[in-house]
# Entry
Amino acid sequence: LSHGSGGKAMRDLIEGLILPALGASSATPLEDQARIDVLETLGTGGQIAFTTDSYVVDPLSFPGGDIGTLAVNGTVNDLAVGGARPIVLSCSLILEEGLPFTILEKMMCSMAQAAQAARVRIVTGDTKVVPRGSADKMFINTAGIGIIPTGVHLEIARIRPGDQLLLNGHLGDHGAAILKARGDLSLDADVESDCQPLNGIIAALLMAAPGTRCIRDVTRGGLATVLNEFAAGAGVGMRIVEDSIPVRPVVRGICEVLGLDPLYLANEGKLLAVVPKEEAGAALDALRSCPEGTYAGVIGEVLAGPPGRVVLSSHFGGERIVDMLVGEQLPRIC
Amino acid sequence: MSFSPDQTATLGEEVRVRGLVQGVGFRPAVWRLARDCGLSGDVCNDGKGVLIRIWGPASERDRFLIRLRDEPPPLARIDEVVRGYLCEDPPEGTFSISTSRSGEVHTGAVPDAATCPACLQEIFDPFNRRYRYPFTNCTHCGPRFSILEDIPYDRAHTSMNIFPLCKDCRAEYENPEDRRFHAQPVACHACGPKARLVRLDGHAVSADRYTQLDAVDAATNLLKRGEIVLIKGLGGFHLACDATNDHAVSALRLRKHRPHKPLALMARDLEIVRRYAHVSHAEENLLQSHQAPIVLLNRLNTDSLAFDIAPGMQRLGFMLPYTPLHHLLMRRMDRPIVLTSGNLSDAPQVVDDAAAVRALRGVTDWMLTHDRAIINRVDDSVIQMAGDDTMMLRRGRGYAPESLPLPEGFDASPDLLALGGELKNTFCLIKDGQAILSQHMGDLEQAAVWDDTVRNHALYARIFQHVPKAVVVDRHPEYLSRKWGVEISEKSDLPLISVQHHHAHIAAVMAEHRLPLDHPPIIALALDGMGLGDAGALWGCECLQVSYCEIRHLGGLRPSALPGGNLAMREPWRNALVQFADAFGWPVARQRFTNLSIMEYLGKKPVEQLLHMRDRNVCTPLCSSAGRLFDAVSAVCGLCMDRVSYEGQAAMLLEASVDLSVMGNASEPGYPFEIAESEKHFIQMDPRTLWSPLLDDLQGGIPVETIAARFHKGLAASLVQLIRRTLGATPWTTTVALSGGVFQNLTLLRATREALESLGLEVLVPHLIPANDGGLAFGQAVVAAAQIVT
Ligand SMILES: [Fe+3]
Ligand SMILES: [Mg+2]
Ligand SMILES: [Zn+2]
Ligand SMILES: [Zn+2]
# Structure
């Protein structure tokens, strides 16, 4: 790839590769912005949700996904956890000079497939090629717009003591897959990233449990980080129960060798929902009825206090504080 | 000294006494002495201590002060006496105790003290009204800090406030001639707390089914019968069982999830202790002191104790009864009992009945409890003797929260709060030029320990009227103590001072030995598991040049990988693998030492993965840890390969297996460390050279006991060499301080110390401040104080 400035080469790249790959036709004139018919889409009113995120991952492909699937699902999930139905995405590419076309093509293909699976359209975008060394292969920024129906108000401030904490499946798959893809594992571990869109399962959850307080997708920093943000944001305590947190044996095995804690490992297709106790049963059924939630479970509960504190209760009944990490998982023991 | 040429003239004098003089029966002692000496005047408490005014002839005033110095009340500690003239006339009448100066708050608190001989005599005297009363106490003994809720220290601010005094007790309380004058927890059968035997399975129990006497005696019968009994003590609950009963001890370990960690023992008297352990004169004094700590004693070769009291250890932790309840319980026990903290696994000792029942109903069906609440958890203190010196391992009951005087130059320090480390956490206040080190709190990551710590800190702030001007923390970004400190400093807008881990370890020793603030830098060895050093490095075996204000890193152990980070702290085999790979390269090592049991063990482990992680620098920080080197040797010797079940287990097993005759034999070699100067004159001890001779010995069938001794010898010798090489850079000093948890290893300490002393160096080691991270807070506080003052 060597497409320096805007001109013809760039137009060829966009019209020849990117647009077809993303399923847009080059017959429609290229405008500078997407246009969404608000009335038609909104119907009964509600709110527009708007989010953006940039995706940087090394390596570009990993078991279970690649930077393309991440870029779509990540933004879709950021919309979905706010209760929004994702509608459209933008896609902005920063490409390093010399990136093979085949890789670009593959990533665009992944984006298109991921968008289709998540039922969103990629409607606008931008592409820049920068000199070698100015970027690492390829960076993707996606922004997304979604519609939050009337009556849906997912907010951390609504969390109350007694609420139940629901997780839709195994922790740490993505983190483990990245370790494997980077060649950090010499063990032959059969792991795949959990990278997947969560808008479907969230819609099902909100239908079954309209009182749901808030939802967060569990990504970098892991479950521990989300719980701490919830606890600090709502001024409540949280308790999770070790035995109820699903971790695949292979991921647990990796953690036991590398000394990592699955609670801090990254995920790309997991959500944590805070649901009032009386709706927890219905919420759990709804989660489990979706393919993304087969292994869903109640993993803990919200406590009155101490504010901001998350504890993990272990087999033996002891409770360990699970704090947000300042840096990497650094040994502490003297 | 006298103030008047006329020895017989009646003159007035004001005497100010500072130290531990409040709440210990100091005023009645003064009152009795003054009357003995025929002096008039008065005595009162105030914010600075005790103020005495005496009128009488100079000779009698002198005699009074000499006697006060020589026979203070048992729990008092006099730091300073300042005398000055009084021009006023003496007050009317004889000597009196005045009520405390108005407007002044009595701050501070006194540690709990073991039952005094006078009270002991009363509880075993059938004609005394306190016969068999389990909560007997007086001014010279009994609960203090553990029942304190607030200041001033009077009954209303303790958990005795629900027990109104009966007529007899009140008379004692109000009589200055009585041993119980103003003893706040004073009580008797009629008015005080009562012991009760409870069945945790919900069944009713009547003690008289088990005894003719009372609930405490019934518990004795249960213990004799082999039952485990949960006992509410002074600073927390204990689990007890007959220490000679294999079945009971195994059941206790199993149910408590404590497979190996040594269990503490209590024996009725010294005579029984001597059946199982050697007791030196100093150890005898320590056991019988009013602090009554657990003392680690060299075990005798008797097999009548249960087999797994202290697996693999050469020492036993014994204490003597320290409350009347314990004395009564042990009265008919002619053998030791296990008395271990009432908790599961690593959780802190429980202190209230409901929590005890909740947490421990699966461990036992029996609870001996009472209705006096424990307000503050205070764990039993643990001490060992290093030669003639005490070495505190866990500072709790009997010692905390006694204030510690600071060396010259520290009077100018502002009040500070230092928050300590992570495991074995304690915190430390600096208040009016003194340090107040909290009791052992424990692993802050345990939610219950954290709760205790926060509550305890609020209590200390209240009882010492402490408002810090700065907050002091370790540098480690993930220590919860640091995060807490950051929060406090932001909330209260206080400066945050970070102190390097090993600097704090060494500063603690310096301050304990009263080196003045402006003392020139000394040389120090800090050996422990791990602490954050300079530039993000992980340290644990360092030679430092230390003043209170700063350190220079002169030398240390060559860093090794910690594959798996925290896991390398728990799984000794990981360190063995790394040492093999460093010394020989793994393929060579594997071939050369195939017949060793550690190799067979490693064959079943994901060795390739760990080496791969090390090569790729994933989850494998480098650390120059002495603790991990001990782990590696312990694993290679087959003593502890898989996983430690308590902190320091592998290293302690290695120390316990040392053949002392080899240690003492000067012609026996130690395994060599290569000592080399690297860049910037940094002197590095390289452990790679010790492995070849060590493994040859192991393959050649040399006993592990000899190998353990040779390792200790080699390490001590190289530490001494390290010091010698650095002395050139610090010609002004002949003082060397040793600290860090690894120096709790007495074999290593003795060998290092003796060699250094034979070079004419003065060696400072910790005594009452723990060498482990329990002493960090104290060290942090003095470093910060020095930095602020200077
Ligand atoms: Fe340390
Ligand atoms: Mg937190
Ligand atoms: Zn007494
Ligand atoms: Zn009474």
Residues B 165-166, 168-169, 187-188, 190-192 surround zinc ion (ligand 4) (CB under 6 Å).
